[in-house]
Amino acid sequence: MRPEKPIGIFDSGLGGLTVVREIRRQLPGEDIVYLGDTARVPYGTKSKEAIERFATEDVEFLRRHEVKLAVVACGTASSVALSLLLEESQDVPILDVFRPGVRAAVRTTKTNRIGVIGTTATVGSGRFEEAIQRNGHRVIRSVACPLFVPLVEEGLYEGEIADKVAEMYLGPLKEEVDTLVLACTHYPLLKGTIRKAMGPSVRLVDPAQETAKETQEYLLSHDAVNPTDQRGRVELFLTDLPPHYRDLIELFLGEMPDRIERVEI
Amino acid sequence: MRPEKPIGIFDSGLGGLTVVREIRRQLPGEDIVYLGDTARVPYGTKSKEAIERFATEDVEFLRRHEVKLAVVACGTASSVALSLLLEESQDVPILDVFRPGVRAAVRTTKTNRIGVIGTTATVGSGRFEEAIQRNGHRVIRSVACPLFVPLVEEGLYEGEIADKVAEMYLGPLKEEVDTLVLACTHYPLLKGTIRKAMGPSVRLVDPAQETAKETQEYLLSHDAVNPTDQRGRVELFLTDLPPHYRDLIELFLGEMPDRIERVEI
Q1: Residues A3, A237: contact at Cβ < 8 Å?
Q2: Record: contact B40-A38, CB cut-off 8 A
Q3: Which of B96, B104, B143, B193 is the most exposed place for a label (fewest CB within 10 A)?
């Protein structure tokens, strides 16, 4: 693994930039190549077969850009397509948001009562339950929150409507868990709303933060941290440039990237 | 135009089945070939370029199925990509939901105050305003309602959350228009909610109904109504079979089709 090569990251859309933001915080020298499949977003309402096909094409795109590491920053692709990506990946190591989320949940819970929220596909896959059970813990409940992504994308991540929607989804979880995994890259923007709905005693696990930590550990242990003391470049490749995409990039990334290019994959 | 050939209809997803339902009501003998681009749904949040490319591929698929007529049942594609589709269409006549919606709005208004609601792309295109102005009328306001589609797809087309969202979008329209065009195939399912938010004096124009009427008129005037007295077949071709697709098909179509097949386009 050549340290000066970029880290590759992909997501179904722009939400995965919350992962880039955390990685930049912890590894400021790394160059980032980010692929957002904005022409086919969202993945979370689609079939396993479609998600696997899209994710395979996404990794292939990153491989062509000679990344030293590919990070699956999409909660849906991480839950649904990870086994396939790991099987098919020969030369590029693959990290994801799913496994760090599981590990953090298991570390965090005190009462062995873990909840998971994500897209329809993530929750439908049952992968979180399986993985948490393998760690000797128990998912009490997993809940699909399909309106959360459109709420965030409309800028409605707080306020009366967000509160009502959060209440509808999270009401049944509230008294039952002590730890809640936010298994979708859009959800960190709803943290305030989710916290209000869940109450102050429930601990929220944000896989974006955990993934950034594990990326750092991985690079350190493989002697592959970029040795530069310059701030790394962020290059965004998007399969579509939808209306307001610049606003969404700034919302999720917290800065403007060095380059934005539309690509076909 | 050979009367025994099927009518081709496409939409970004399953919402366009509301148009099929109306066509079946008025033209029960017609065979229907429906393409739903469920792998790339929604179109309404994407760029003009992406929507034009997708819509061109969709029409090409219908042409390969030798339809006698192609109906664009997607509000977004009708508003954004219609000129291109008409320019490029050589052998297959193209109907859409946009022009019948405009004509019905112009016929319906008493006070020359028309409102339009649709997706971000539809409203952003400004095409409704232009077309209604060309007819000597005025769109007072057009409002993008991007949360309406996910609400319908989650089955939340009535209730407290739908009311709050409708109030947020429609509040500014309420006192200003006498006619409101529902320029998205999902919105007919929200009619009750929209009517509650708009009050009883505002007339709602449903382009699905108008499109079915115009399809019937077109076939009659071209001597191309299928002469059979049997009920026609409905064949669905979908680019993805997402979770719950059968429920959504039944919700929009009101019956189960004769065939459902996944295709790549």
Answers
A1: no
A2: no
A3: B143
**Residue A7: closest CA among A260, A224, A229, A206:** A224
Neighbour tally for B206: CB within 10 Å? 22
Element containing residue A144 per DSSP (H, E):
strand A139-144
Q: What is the rounded distance in angstroms from the CA atom of residue B164 to the CA atom of residue B141?
A: 20
Of B85, B71, B87, nearest to B32 (Cα)? B71
User: Quick one: how far is CA A124 from the chain centroid?
Assistant: 17
DSSP string, B160-205: HHHHHHHHHHHGGGTTT-SEEEE-STTGGGGHHHHHHHH-TTSEEE
DSSP B233: P
Count helices and strands in chain B by DSSP H and E runs: 11, 10
pLDDT digit of tens for each residue in chain B (265 aa)? 899 999 999 999 999 999 999 999 999 999 999 999 999 999 999 999 999 999 999 999 999 999 999 999 999 999 999 999 999 987 899 999 999 999 999 999 999 999 999 999 999 999 998 999 898 888 888 999 999 999 998 999 999 999 999 999 999 999 999 999 999 999 999 999 999 999 999 999 999 999 999 999 999 999 999 999 999 999 999 999 998 899 999 999 999 999 999 999 9
- Interface contacts (A, B; CB < 8 Å): 71
ipTM for the predicted complex comes to: 0.91
Residue A184 annotated among the catalytic residues of the structure: yes
The nearest alpha carbon in chain A to B121 belongs to: A243
Distance CA A225, CA B79 (A): 49
Residue whose tokens read 């382009």: B207
Q: How far apart, in whole angstroms, are the C-alpha atoms of residue A250 and residue A236?
A: 12
The three-state secondary structure class of A50 is helix
3-class secondary-structure state, position B62: helix
A64 Cβ contact partners less than 8 Å away, ≥ 6 residues apart? none
What stretches of A135-253 show up as alpha helix (H) in DSSP?
A: 148-153, 160-170, 191-198, 207-221, 245-253
Residue in B50, B147, B244 nearest the CB of A150: B147
Residues composing chain A: 265
Closest partner residue to B46 (CB to CB) among A47, A150, A240 is A240
Spatial separation of the C-alpha atoms in residues A30 and A16, rounded to whole Å: 17
Q: Nearest residue of B to residue A148 by CA position?
A: B150
